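thought: fold this chain, then report.
action: predict
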Amino acid sequence: MARNIATAANLSNGSRGRIADIVLDPREPAIAAQAVEEKKTYLLYPPAMIILELDFCELPQLPCLPPRHIPLSPAYCKFNIATTPSTRVTRRQLPLTAAYAFTDFKAQGQTIDHVLVDICRTTCFALSPFNAYVVLSRGHGRDSIRLLRDFDDDLFIRHPSEDLRIEDERISQLVEDTERKWPECH
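observation:
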């Protein structure tokens, strides 16, 4: 969702779900059989509403709809364009974002139905195996995760942190020293 509708019921900007049904505008002509076969059609009017199945919803079940399903109608949005003279625009659209992207930090702790992952090297910051683990473990399994583009194998071969590697070696040395000094305790 792209607009706060009822924040107390978790119907707010950022809520996630799936489109369960599309209710067409009554002025829309019947969809041709060929378009149904091809699973592609062009609408003359925006849908009258959609039925959205939310991942989390704290509203009571609405009559004639399954649990967690809500009707969502197009909303009007007005804004000014900075021109001379100023132009006022009114737009009618569904308050939805068809897909979205977020960082590995935002994805932590979430399970996402379908994940498209980009673990390619960036020019802005370095990725670590920790980042890759977080994003690659967000889906339900390997069938629900896709890689956007090829990645550098070195991401999984090199040690994630030189400081961490040095600390691991120091701790391993302390374990060996302890076992040598007190062999009866091991």
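thought: worth noting. The mean pLDDT is 84.
final: tokens above.
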